[in-house]
Design goal:
Strand content: under 5%
Order of helices and strands: HHHHHHHH
Shape: globular
Low-confidence stretches: 165-171
Helix content: 55-70%
Number of strands: 0
Length: 171
């Protein structure tokens, strides 16, 4: 599931994580500590460990943010995603407990800088939305996606070097 999300696939069918369930059952399933233990056991089988998982979740959140921004620019979604770097899910993740231990490290500050720059570009994109042609907006969106991929690759490199696990290569 994580690999598919990181590749931009937000929808999948199968029993890889759990059987299909309705929204009420999903809330209960997420709240059940055994669900996470079962998933950790599966992820460890593929080389992930609990230290890598917060990074993978954070990347999945930012992939979803990029998709939401693109869908807003393409008029598929009526509202833009959260533009504040500190209030989007990825920004919140960066300031939560699992990441506090890293805040003084240079590689972590690089991620923060890239993330904030992405949000500045997204704010500019939204500011220009009413004044520019679709081609110009799409060129700006491509620049944001390119920077996002740079951030994803940097985080995967960090995970490989610092956490020393074999993870899928960033594309």
């Amino acid at each position: 599931g994580i690999f598919l999300l990181l590749q931009g696939c937000q929808y999948a069918q199968g029993y890889g994580i759990a059987r299909p369930m309705n929204a009420d059952q999903l809330v209960q399933w997420i709240a059940n500590p055994q669900s996470m233990k079962d998933n950790l056991r599966i992820w460890r089988r593929y080389g992930y460990d609990s230290e890598a998982l917060p990074w993978l979740y954070a990347l999945c959140e930012h992939n979803a943010w990029i998709n939401d921004l693109k869908n807003f620019i393409d008029n598929i979604k009526p509202t833009p995603p959260e533009i504040s770097a500190d209030l989007c899910y990825f920004g919140k993740w960066l300031h939560e407990k699992p990441f506090h231990a890293y805040s003084a490290k240079a590689w972590f500050r690089k991620f923060e800088t890239l993330h904030k720059h992405l949000h500045r570009l997204a704010k500019e994109l939204l500011d220009y939305r009413m004044r520019e042609s679709n081609e110009s907006l799409h060129a700006r969106m491509e620049a944001i996606e390119t920077l996002h991929q740079e951030m994803v690759k940097s985080i995967f490199l960090h995970i490989r070097q610092e956490i020393k696990r074999t993870l899928p290569k960033a594309s």
